[in-house]
Amino acid sequence: MTEMTMTEMTMTEPTERTATTATATTGVKARAKARPAGPSIHRRALLTWVAVYPTITILQSLLGTKVAAYPLPVRTLVLTVFMAPLVTYLMLPAVMKAHAKVVARRRISG
Fold first, then answer.
1. Phi and psi of 60, rounded to 5°?
2. Angstrom distance (rounded) from CA 19 to CA 32
3. Which of 56, 70, 105, 106 is the most buried (most CB within 10 A)?
4. Which pLDDT tens digit goes with each residue over 2-51?
5. Domain ranges across the chain
C-alpha cells in the first residue's frame, strides 16, 4: 500500500482523505456506516407541513389580539420568532419520531 502525498490528499474527497488517513496511521480501513434512507422529499414536505400548520394556528390564536394593531411585517416577525424554534426543536422531531414508528410498524407487519 502506498502513502498519498499531501497534494493527492487535498485533491481527493474529504471522506476518502479520512479513510486514507485512518489507513495510513492505524493500518485499519475505515468503513462507511450505512445510514437508513430517510423519507422522500415529498414526504418530508408533508411532515413539515404537519408540524408547521398547527404551530402557526395555535400561535395566531394566542398572539392574534395582542399583535393585531401592528403592521403585517411586525406581526409576521413576532410569529416567526416563536414559530421557528418551536417547529425546529419540538414539533418536527416529534413528527419525525412518530413517522419512524409508523414506518417501522408497517415493516414489521408486512
1. -65, -40
2. 9
3. 56
4. 555 444 444 444 444 444 444 555 555 556 566 667 788 999 999 999 99
5. 1-34, 41-109
Q: Contact at 8 Å (CB) between 95 and 50?
A: yes
* Cα-Cα-Cα-Cα dihedral sign, residues 97, 99, 103, 109: positive
- The three cell numbers of residue 41 are 422529499
DSSP string, the chain: -PPPPHHHHHHS-HHHHHHHHHHHHHS-PPPPPPPPP---HHHHHHHHHHHHHHHHHHHHHHHHHHHTTS-HHHHHHHHHHHHHHHIIIIIHHHHHHHHHHHHHHHHHH-
